[in-house]
Amino acid sequence: MIDVFIIILVSICQSIFGVGVLLFGTPIFLILGYSFTETLVTLLPISFFINILQIYPRLGLINKQMVLKVCLIALPIIFVLLIIVSKFKADISIPMGFILILFSLKSFLPNLNRFFDYAASLKYIPYIALGIVHGISNLGGSILAILVQENCYDKLVKRTTIAAIYALLATTQIIALSSVGIELDIRYSLIALGLIT
Q1: CA nearest 66: which of 142, 173, 3, 160?
Q2: What count of other Cβ atoms lies within 10 Å of the Cβ of residue 111?
Q3: How far apart are CA 4 and CA 2, in angstroms?
Q4: Who contacts 128 (Cβ-Cβ below 8 Å, separation ≥6)?
Q5: Cα torsion through 152, 173, 135, 145, rounded to 10
Q6: Helices (H), the chain
Q7: Which of 11-15, 67-71, 135-139, 181-185 has the highest mean pLDDT?
Q8: Which residues contact 183 (CB under 8 A, 6 or more apart)?
Q9: Dihedral sign of CA atoms 158, 159, 162, 165 in order
Q10: 124: alpha, beta or left, given left = phi > 0 and alpha = psi -120 to 50?
């Protein structure tokens, strides 16, 4: 029952702020004892459907240049790394913990915050980082938020671009999992969709 409650919370969060299902849901489900793969097969369909609903009415607002860079740079990295992590059942607890600590400290350490802002302004490095972090931990949402903040100025453009990129990330992850014979669990997606529609 606790997992249903968490899915409702993170789904509401994502429908309001544009992030939540993967960024918050992933560490919570891992803490609850789900494996990384079980977490992905549960959360990815939810994230995908919510993002599709968010971008459909505002397709013209998507930052296409950002989306193109994500497609060319981040998605291939995510695809390869996720296959490796899933196939060999790699323990991602250490990189997951490091990433969570790093992004938690960002708000409290001005120098670290300035470093993230500078990195986001570089041409390709942030997209490579997005691919690596999301491929091994499913926590690329923090990097994506920084990237969108740097490249988009209108609030609706930011939200729509984040939703479009998240939909692409989820699609890539779903294809990667399917290619190694892992099936999705869409039961919770029906709860989330019923909640936000």
Answers
A1: 160
A2: 7
A3: 5
A4: 73, 74, 77
A5: 20
A6: 2-17, 25-31, 36-55, 64-69, 75-87, 93-106, 110-121, 125-137, 141-151, 155-179, 187-196
A7: 67-71
A8: 41
A9: negative
A10: alpha
Tokens of 7: 């899915």
The span from the CA of 148 to the CA of 130, in Å, is: 12
Q: What is the dihedral of CA 136, 141, 142, 143, to 10 degrees?
A: 70
Is residue 43 within 8 A of residue 21, CB to CB? The reply is yes
137 token code pair: 């931990």
Tell me the per-residue pLDDT of 156-189, one tens digit each, with 9 for 90 and over: 898 899 999 999 999 999 999 999 888 887 776 7
State pLDDT tens for residues 15-42: 777 777 888 888 888 888 888 888 888 8
Size of the chain in residues:
197
